[in-house]
Request: fold
Amino acid sequence: MSDDKPQTPPDRLSVNPRSEHFEQSALERGIGIRFKDRVRTDVEEYSISEGWIRVQAGKTVDRKGQPLTLKLNGPVEAWFEDLGDDAPVAKKD
Reply:
């Protein structure tokens, strides 16, 4: 692996291309999220420093066709899945 790639994911990331926190290169590497000691695969956006994730609220969409989301507060940990099982984990200290 080359040294130019960061070892930990960004502090805040979104899967929505319309968001200012969208980062395609990070998403292509695969992001693992642990929220309240549970691995989550349904995360739309997260912030490690602020301690929250956004998840889709069922199949409900707004008038523009964007999914409605719920903001859940708690400890968030993130890692790049392409680094394997011993990947460095980004978390709030």
